[in-house]
Amino acid sequence: xxxxxxxxxxxxxxxxxxxxxxxxxxxxxxxxxxxxxxxxxxxxxxxxxxxxxxxxxxxxxxxxxxxxxxxxxxxxxxxxxxxxxxxxxxxxxxxxxxxxxxxxxxxxxxxxxxxxxxxxxxxxxxxxxxxxxxxxxxxxxxxxxxxxxxxxxxxxxxxxxxxxxxxxxxxxxxxxxxxxxxxxxxxxxxxxxxxxxxxxxxxxxxxxxxxxxxxxxxxxxxx
Length: 223
What we know:
Largest sheet: 7 strands, mixed
Mean pLDDT: 83
Distance between the termini: 53 Å
Order of helices and strands: HHEHEEHEEHHEEH
Shape: globular
Structural class: alpha+beta
Low-confidence stretches: 169-173
Number of strands: 7
């Protein structure tokens, strides 16, 4: 599948007719959507089998946000959306945890926000939720000005293969696994994921994950 997407990228740089260009775009889009579904199913299988492993490495949320901005900026530009990443100053720049899984969760939620937003902006924000002797709980939120979710559908959106409305699958694609996986990834790290939304006004997906701060940062804060 990655080879198909790669070759479609090469073809897109070759001068073709309008119809051929449209065919190449369709191949690439279908390939990318299928690859997302395959990756989601593999992750879900690992979660159910208890085989998902979380790494423990030092990383920077600010640097993670820079990477995510690069990854998602083009999709936002294609829809003329403003994409903003904000990390509060009091958030430690060196945390111990799984950067890859955090990137996956935020990428999933932000990509979703861009997909369901036609105008306005998508904002990703990181702030301190709580500090204890053991951990620092970081709250991440992804806020959009998109189509929103009706109140009677909110309790179902984290269920597997769930689409908020039947037309969203046809119009926006996907099979309804992304939010379920994001929720599981957050919970397996000792956190929680929740949503607030209003139909036609947008949504806010927020989650908290406990991390350990570096000893140097703790000593600096206490001095």
